[in-house]
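WP5 quarterly update. Target: Type II secretion system protein G. Source organism: Pirellulimonas nuda. Length: 357 aa.
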Amino acid sequence: MRTAPTRSASGFTLVELLVVIAIIGLLIALLLPAVQAAREAARRTQCGSQLKQLGLALHNFEGAQRKLPPGYASLSRTTPPSPLRDPQTWDAPPGWGWTAYLLPYLEETATADQIDYDVPLWAPRHKPAILATIPTLLCPSDPGPKNPFLVVDAAGAPVTIAGTTVEVGRSNYVASHGQESCWGECGATPTTLVFTNIYTSQTKEITHNGDVSVVADGPFFRNSDVRFREVTDGLSKTIFLGEHAAELSDKTWVGVVPGGSTPPRFTTPENGADAAATLVLVHGGPSGGELDITGLPIIHPVNYPTYHVGQMYATHPGGGNVCLGDASTRFVSDDVDLILWAEMSSIAEEEVLEKEL
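C-alpha coordinates (predicted):
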Protein backbone atom coordinates (compact mmCIF):
# COMPACT_ATOMS: atom_id res chain seq x y z
CA MET A 1 0.00 0.00 0.00
CA ARG A 2 1.42 3.35 -1.03
CA THR A 3 1.25 6.34 1.35
CA ALA A 4 1.24 10.01 0.37
CA PRO A 5 4.59 11.73 0.88
CA THR A 6 4.70 14.07 3.88
CA ARG A 7 5.81 17.68 3.62
CA SER A 8 8.26 19.10 6.10
CA ALA A 9 6.93 22.20 7.91
CA SER A 10 8.58 25.42 6.70
CA GLY A 11 9.67 28.18 9.16
CA PHE A 12 12.50 30.22 10.60
CA THR A 13 15.51 28.52 11.91
CA LEU A 14 16.85 29.69 15.23
CA VAL A 15 19.68 31.53 13.52
CA GLU A 16 17.28 33.33 11.18
CA LEU A 17 15.07 34.32 14.10
CA LEU A 18 18.04 35.76 16.00
CA VAL A 19 19.10 37.73 12.92
CA VAL A 20 15.61 39.23 12.55
CA ILE A 21 15.51 40.18 16.24
CA ALA A 22 18.95 41.80 15.92
CA ILE A 23 17.85 43.82 12.89
CA ILE A 24 14.69 45.00 14.67
CA GLY A 25 16.76 46.01 17.70
CA LEU A 26 19.17 47.90 15.48
CA LEU A 27 16.33 49.76 13.78
CA ILE A 28 14.82 50.71 17.13
CA ALA A 29 18.22 51.94 18.34
CA LEU A 30 18.56 54.06 15.20
CA LEU A 31 15.03 55.46 15.34
CA LEU A 32 14.73 56.13 19.08
CA PRO A 33 17.06 59.19 19.17
CA ALA A 34 15.19 60.66 16.20
CA VAL A 35 11.85 60.14 17.95
CA GLN A 36 13.19 61.66 21.17
CA ALA A 37 14.62 64.62 19.25
CA ALA A 38 11.29 65.19 17.52
CA ARG A 39 9.45 65.10 20.83
CA GLU A 40 11.90 67.57 22.40
CA ALA A 41 11.58 69.86 19.39
CA ALA A 42 7.82 69.86 19.92
CA ARG A 43 8.25 70.57 23.64
CA ARG A 44 10.67 73.40 22.92
CA THR A 45 8.23 74.91 20.43
CA GLN A 46 5.40 74.67 22.96
CA CYS A 47 7.59 76.35 25.59
CA GLY A 48 8.39 79.20 23.19
CA SER A 49 4.70 79.55 22.38
CA GLN A 50 3.87 79.86 26.10
CA LEU A 51 6.52 82.55 26.51
CA LYS A 52 4.99 84.39 23.56
CA GLN A 53 1.58 84.27 25.29
CA LEU A 54 3.20 85.93 28.28
CA GLY A 55 4.76 88.55 26.02
CA LEU A 56 1.41 89.32 24.41
CA ALA A 57 -0.18 89.52 27.86
CA LEU A 58 2.45 92.12 28.81
CA HIS A 59 1.49 94.16 25.76
CA ASN A 60 -2.20 93.96 26.60
CA PHE A 61 -1.48 94.93 30.21
CA GLU A 62 0.68 97.87 29.16
CA GLY A 63 -1.96 98.98 26.68
CA ALA A 64 -4.62 98.96 29.39
CA GLN A 65 -2.59 100.28 32.33
CA ARG A 66 -0.06 102.46 30.45
CA LYS A 67 2.75 100.66 32.24
CA LEU A 68 4.11 97.17 32.74
CA PRO A 69 3.26 95.23 35.89
CA PRO A 70 5.78 95.52 38.74
CA GLY A 71 8.39 92.83 39.12
CA TYR A 72 6.68 92.47 42.45
CA ALA A 73 4.73 94.86 44.67
CA SER A 74 6.16 95.75 48.08
CA LEU A 75 5.43 98.54 50.55
CA SER A 76 9.14 98.71 51.27
CA ARG A 77 9.63 102.38 52.05
CA THR A 78 6.53 103.35 54.00
CA THR A 79 6.73 105.36 57.22
CA PRO A 80 6.44 103.72 59.62
CA PRO A 81 7.63 100.52 57.96
CA SER A 82 5.33 97.53 57.78
CA PRO A 83 5.80 95.19 60.75
CA LEU A 84 6.10 92.39 58.20
CA ARG A 85 8.94 94.04 56.26
CA ASP A 86 12.08 91.92 55.98
CA PRO A 87 14.70 93.82 58.02
CA GLN A 88 17.49 92.98 55.57
CA THR A 89 15.96 93.11 52.09
CA TRP A 90 13.02 95.43 52.93
CA ASP A 91 10.65 93.14 51.05
CA ALA A 92 7.17 93.75 52.44
CA PRO A 93 3.47 93.14 51.72
CA PRO A 94 1.58 92.63 49.51
CA GLY A 95 4.23 90.76 47.51
CA TRP A 96 2.30 89.97 44.31
CA GLY A 97 4.57 89.21 41.35
CA TRP A 98 4.44 90.26 37.72
CA THR A 99 2.72 87.09 36.50
CA ALA A 100 -0.08 87.42 39.05
CA TYR A 101 -1.02 90.77 37.50
CA LEU A 102 -1.17 89.15 34.05
CA LEU A 103 -3.71 86.48 34.98
CA PRO A 104 -6.71 88.33 33.44
CA TYR A 105 -4.73 88.58 30.18
CA LEU A 106 -3.86 84.85 30.20
CA GLU A 107 -7.48 83.64 30.34
CA GLU A 108 -7.04 82.90 34.05
CA THR A 109 -9.83 85.16 35.29
CA ALA A 110 -11.18 82.48 37.62
CA THR A 111 -7.94 82.65 39.61
CA ALA A 112 -7.57 86.42 39.23
CA ASP A 113 -11.07 87.00 40.59
CA GLN A 114 -10.02 85.38 43.87
CA ILE A 115 -7.21 87.90 44.38
CA ASP A 116 -7.25 91.28 46.09
CA TYR A 117 -3.94 92.78 44.99
CA ASP A 118 -3.96 95.22 47.92
CA VAL A 119 -4.02 92.35 50.43
CA PRO A 120 -0.87 90.27 51.15
CA LEU A 121 -0.60 87.20 48.98
CA TRP A 122 -0.22 84.99 52.08
CA ALA A 123 -3.57 86.11 53.57
CA PRO A 124 -5.80 83.08 54.31
CA ARG A 125 -8.38 84.26 51.79
CA HIS A 126 -5.82 83.82 49.01
CA LYS A 127 -4.80 80.25 49.79
CA PRO A 128 -6.94 78.58 47.08
CA ALA A 129 -5.74 81.06 44.47
CA ILE A 130 -2.01 80.94 45.18
CA LEU A 131 -2.00 77.13 45.07
CA ALA A 132 -3.22 77.14 41.47
CA THR A 133 -1.17 75.17 38.95
CA ILE A 134 -1.34 77.00 35.61
CA PRO A 135 -0.25 74.76 32.70
CA THR A 136 0.72 77.74 30.53
CA LEU A 137 3.44 78.59 33.08
CA LEU A 138 5.09 75.15 33.08
CA CYS A 139 7.66 74.23 30.45
CA PRO A 140 6.96 70.70 29.18
CA SER A 141 10.71 69.95 28.98
CA ASP A 142 11.41 70.62 32.66
CA PRO A 143 11.92 67.29 34.48
CA GLY A 144 11.63 69.05 37.84
CA PRO A 145 8.54 69.10 40.07
CA LYS A 146 5.31 70.69 38.84
CA ASN A 147 3.42 70.86 42.13
CA PRO A 148 3.16 73.87 44.48
CA PHE A 149 6.00 74.34 46.97
CA LEU A 150 6.59 75.82 50.41
CA VAL A 151 8.50 79.11 50.50
CA VAL A 152 11.65 78.53 52.57
CA ASP A 153 14.44 80.60 54.09
CA ALA A 154 18.14 80.44 53.21
CA ALA A 155 18.59 77.38 55.43
CA GLY A 156 15.74 75.55 53.70
CA ALA A 157 13.26 75.84 56.60
CA PRO A 158 9.66 76.85 55.78
CA VAL A 159 9.04 80.58 56.25
CA THR A 160 6.33 81.45 58.74
CA ILE A 161 4.63 84.80 58.24
CA ALA A 162 1.54 86.05 60.06
CA GLY A 163 1.55 82.73 61.89
CA THR A 164 1.41 80.45 58.86
CA THR A 165 3.62 78.84 56.24
CA VAL A 166 3.15 79.86 52.62
CA GLU A 167 2.71 77.39 49.75
CA VAL A 168 2.64 78.78 46.21
CA GLY A 169 1.99 77.62 42.67
CA ARG A 170 4.97 76.98 40.45
CA SER A 171 6.19 78.70 37.29
CA ASN A 172 9.07 78.02 34.91
CA TYR A 173 9.14 81.59 33.59
CA VAL A 174 10.95 84.57 35.08
CA ALA A 175 11.28 88.29 34.34
CA SER A 176 14.50 90.21 33.73
CA HIS A 177 15.81 92.64 36.33
CA GLY A 178 18.42 93.79 33.81
CA GLN A 179 22.19 93.56 34.12
CA GLU A 180 22.18 94.56 37.77
CA SER A 181 20.72 92.64 40.68
CA CYS A 182 19.44 94.51 43.69
CA TRP A 183 17.44 92.31 46.00
CA GLY A 184 19.41 91.24 49.05
CA GLU A 185 21.48 94.42 48.74
CA CYS A 186 18.63 96.91 48.33
CA GLY A 187 17.32 97.17 51.86
CA ALA A 188 19.05 97.81 55.15
CA THR A 189 22.38 98.42 53.41
CA PRO A 190 21.86 101.91 51.92
CA THR A 191 24.56 101.73 49.22
CA THR A 192 25.68 99.27 46.57
CA LEU A 193 28.08 98.99 43.64
CA VAL A 194 26.79 99.28 40.07
CA PHE A 195 28.52 98.96 36.73
CA THR A 196 28.89 102.17 34.79
CA ASN A 197 30.65 100.55 31.83
CA ILE A 198 30.22 96.86 31.00
CA TYR A 199 33.05 96.99 28.47
CA THR A 200 35.72 98.19 30.91
CA SER A 201 34.18 96.78 34.13
CA GLN A 202 34.04 100.22 35.74
CA THR A 203 31.87 100.49 38.84
CA LYS A 204 30.74 103.16 41.27
CA GLU A 205 29.00 103.17 44.61
CA ILE A 206 25.53 104.67 44.73
CA THR A 207 23.03 105.33 47.49
CA HIS A 208 19.63 103.73 47.03
CA ASN A 209 17.97 103.76 50.49
CA GLY A 210 15.79 100.84 49.43
CA ASP A 211 14.69 102.38 46.12
CA VAL A 212 15.54 99.65 43.62
CA SER A 213 14.77 101.90 40.64
CA VAL A 214 18.08 103.74 41.06
CA VAL A 215 19.95 100.44 40.59
CA ALA A 216 17.88 98.19 38.31
CA ASP A 217 18.41 98.68 34.59
CA GLY A 218 15.92 96.11 33.30
CA PRO A 219 12.16 96.12 32.71
CA PHE A 220 11.13 94.45 36.00
CA PHE A 221 12.14 95.07 39.60
CA ARG A 222 10.54 95.73 42.98
CA ASN A 223 7.71 98.25 42.50
CA SER A 224 8.70 98.86 38.88
CA ASP A 225 6.27 100.71 36.61
CA VAL A 226 8.21 100.81 33.34
CA ARG A 227 6.51 102.03 30.17
CA PHE A 228 7.38 100.78 26.70
CA ARG A 229 8.50 104.26 25.70
CA GLU A 230 11.19 104.05 28.39
CA VAL A 231 12.79 101.05 26.67
CA THR A 232 14.93 103.28 24.48
CA ASP A 233 17.32 100.47 23.57
CA GLY A 234 14.42 99.02 21.55
CA LEU A 235 11.76 96.46 22.43
CA SER A 236 13.08 94.02 19.82
CA LYS A 237 16.57 94.33 21.31
CA THR A 238 15.73 93.88 24.98
CA ILE A 239 15.18 90.62 26.88
CA PHE A 240 12.04 90.75 29.02
CA LEU A 241 11.30 87.14 30.00
CA GLY A 242 12.96 83.75 29.99
CA GLU A 243 13.03 80.27 31.44
CA HIS A 244 14.09 78.91 34.79
CA ALA A 245 13.64 75.17 35.24
CA ALA A 246 12.72 73.71 38.63
CA GLU A 247 15.65 71.35 38.12
CA LEU A 248 17.81 74.24 39.42
CA SER A 249 15.50 76.11 41.82
CA ASP A 250 11.87 76.88 42.61
CA LYS A 251 10.11 79.79 40.93
CA THR A 252 6.52 80.95 41.31
CA TRP A 253 3.94 82.97 39.45
CA VAL A 254 2.54 84.24 42.77
CA GLY A 255 5.13 86.67 44.13
CA VAL A 256 7.62 87.35 46.91
CA VAL A 257 7.30 86.49 50.61
CA PRO A 258 9.39 88.56 53.08
CA GLY A 259 12.04 86.38 54.69
CA GLY A 260 11.91 83.90 51.83
CA SER A 261 14.84 82.62 49.83
CA THR A 262 15.62 80.51 46.79
CA PRO A 263 18.06 77.67 47.54
CA PRO A 264 19.54 75.77 44.58
CA ARG A 265 18.69 72.11 44.08
CA PHE A 266 22.32 71.42 43.26
CA THR A 267 25.37 73.37 44.32
CA THR A 268 28.43 74.65 42.48
CA PRO A 269 31.40 76.74 43.64
CA GLU A 270 29.53 79.76 42.27
CA ASN A 271 25.96 79.35 43.50
CA GLY A 272 23.96 79.35 46.70
CA ALA A 273 20.66 80.54 48.15
CA ASP A 274 19.56 84.04 47.14
CA ALA A 275 16.96 86.56 48.30
CA ALA A 276 13.20 86.14 47.89
CA ALA A 277 13.11 88.39 44.80
CA THR A 278 14.63 85.52 42.83
CA LEU A 279 11.36 83.64 43.24
CA VAL A 280 10.12 85.75 40.30
CA LEU A 281 13.12 87.68 38.90
CA VAL A 282 16.55 86.98 37.42
CA HIS A 283 19.30 89.17 35.99
CA GLY A 284 21.89 88.86 33.25
CA GLY A 285 24.96 90.49 34.76
CA PRO A 286 27.31 92.08 35.28
CA SER A 287 26.18 93.28 38.69
CA GLY A 288 28.30 95.42 40.97
CA GLY A 289 27.79 93.20 43.97
CA GLU A 290 28.45 89.91 42.17
CA LEU A 291 31.92 88.56 41.38
CA ASP A 292 33.12 85.07 40.49
CA ILE A 293 35.61 83.04 42.54
CA THR A 294 38.48 84.83 40.78
CA GLY A 295 37.10 88.29 41.59
CA LEU A 296 35.87 89.05 38.06
CA PRO A 297 32.35 90.29 37.19
CA ILE A 298 29.88 87.63 36.09
CA ILE A 299 27.67 87.69 33.01
CA HIS A 300 25.43 84.63 33.09
CA PRO A 301 23.17 83.94 30.10
CA VAL A 302 20.94 80.88 29.80
CA ASN A 303 22.56 77.78 31.33
CA TYR A 304 25.81 79.54 32.18
CA PRO A 305 27.79 77.17 34.44
CA THR A 306 27.63 79.45 37.49
CA TYR A 307 24.10 78.00 37.81
CA HIS A 308 22.89 80.90 39.93
CA VAL A 309 19.30 80.77 41.14
CA GLY A 310 19.12 84.34 39.84
CA GLN A 311 19.89 83.49 36.21
CA MET A 312 17.93 81.92 33.36
CA TYR A 313 18.20 78.16 33.12
CA ALA A 314 16.53 75.71 30.73
CA THR A 315 16.61 71.97 30.14
CA HIS A 316 16.33 72.10 26.36
CA PRO A 317 19.43 70.68 24.66
CA GLY A 318 21.69 73.52 23.60
CA GLY A 319 20.00 76.55 25.12
CA GLY A 320 16.72 78.13 26.22
CA ASN A 321 13.87 80.36 25.11
CA VAL A 322 13.59 84.08 25.82
CA CYS A 323 10.86 86.61 25.07
CA LEU A 324 11.87 90.06 23.88
CA GLY A 325 10.04 93.29 24.55
CA ASP A 326 8.16 93.14 21.26
CA ALA A 327 6.70 89.75 22.35
CA SER A 328 8.84 87.84 19.84
CA THR A 329 10.68 84.77 21.10
CA ARG A 330 14.18 83.49 20.43
CA PHE A 331 15.98 80.28 21.22
CA VAL A 332 19.30 81.37 22.73
CA SER A 333 22.28 79.07 22.42
CA ASP A 334 24.31 78.05 25.47
CA ASP A 335 27.33 79.70 23.86
CA VAL A 336 25.71 83.09 23.21
CA ASP A 337 28.14 86.01 23.27
CA LEU A 338 28.38 87.27 26.85
CA ILE A 339 28.62 90.97 26.00
CA LEU A 340 25.62 90.67 23.67
CA TRP A 341 23.63 89.08 26.49
CA ALA A 342 24.53 91.92 28.85
CA GLU A 343 23.68 94.53 26.21
CA MET A 344 20.24 92.98 25.64
CA SER A 345 19.51 92.77 29.36
CA SER A 346 19.24 96.54 29.91
CA ILE A 347 16.46 98.82 28.66
CA ALA A 348 18.19 102.20 28.28
CA GLU A 349 21.97 101.87 28.45
CA GLU A 350 22.36 102.98 24.79
CA GLU A 351 24.56 100.03 23.82
CA VAL A 352 24.92 99.51 20.08
CA LEU A 353 24.40 95.86 19.21
CA GLU A 354 26.94 94.46 16.77
CA LYS A 355 25.40 90.96 16.81
CA GLU A 356 22.00 89.33 17.12
CA LEU A 357 20.70 86.49 19.28
